């Protein structure tokens, strides 16, 4: 009985340590241009399944997505809107037809639901989560979009899409 309790406590401690390492790993994660490009290729697979043309990865949108992540993190908010002016931030920087998806708690959902990490990157996981949301899927599969980029940092991801 004593050994069973010790084993159970040991397993719980290892699980807690694994969660801590997992969470701190993500908190220090930052997308790269390569991981963003790979995610857009992944998004294009979803678009192809829906009979839509691919979107092109856009470096300017990628840099803006990283700026959005920094702004939310530094100012302590999570929203499409500026917490002071209540202005939709994306229209301040991007012209034309625009869509934005934001997500926080990336990877935590996967860890808690199945105890395993994804077989792909944080960006692709965010796209998977967005594709299961009716409103976000409308953005992902909108045929008017021609350019896109996704970035993840801290525990958040931002996808920005533009078109004519």
Structure, briefly:
The protein is an alpha+beta fold. The protein is built from 7 helices and 4 strands; from the N terminus they run H-H-E-H-H-E-H-H-H-E-E.
What keyword list fits this structure?
transmembrane helix, 16% strand, SCP domain-containing protein, 4 strands, membrane, 2 domains, 7 helices, 164 residues, Pathogenesis-related Protein p14a, alpha+beta
Task: Describe the structure in your own words.
The structure is a single chain. This protein has helices spanning 2-27, 33-49, 59-75, 90-93, 108-114, 122-131, 134-140; strands at 56-57, 97-104, 145-153, 156-163. By secondary structure, it is of the alpha+beta class. The protein has 2 domains: 1-27; 30-161, CAP (Pathogenesis-related Protein p14a, 3-Layer(aba) Sandwich), CATH 3.40.33.10. Helix 2 packs parallel to helix 6. The longest helix is centred in the first third of the chain and has 26 residues, at 2-27. It is globular and about 70 Å long. The chain starts with a helix and ends with a strand. The relative contact order is 0.21. It holds the Pfam family CAP. Residues 41-154 form the SCP domain. Keywords: Membrane, Transmembrane, Transmembrane helix. InterPro entries: CAP_dom, CAP_sf.
């Amino acid at each position: 009985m004593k050994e069973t309790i010790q084993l159970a406590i040991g397993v719980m401690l290892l699980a807690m340590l694994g969660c801590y390492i997992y969470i701190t790993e993500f908190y220090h994660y930052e997308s790269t241009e390569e991981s963003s490009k790979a995610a857009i290729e992944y998004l294009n697979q979803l678009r192809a399944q829906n009979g839509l043309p691919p979107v092109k990865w856009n470096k300017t949108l990628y840099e803006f997505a990283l700026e959005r992540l920094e702004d939310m993190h530094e100012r302590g908010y999570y929203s499409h809107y500026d917490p002071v002016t209540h202005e939709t931030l994306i229209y301040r920087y991007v012209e034309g037809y625009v869509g934005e998806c934001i997500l926080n708690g990336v990877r935590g959902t996967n860890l808690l639901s199945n105890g395993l990490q994804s077989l792909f990157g944080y960006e692709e996981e965010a796209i998977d989560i967005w594709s299961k949301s009716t409103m976000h899927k409308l953005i992902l599969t909108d045929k008017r979009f021609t350019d896109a980029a996704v970035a993840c940092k801290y525990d958040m991801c931002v996808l920005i899409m533009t078109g004519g």
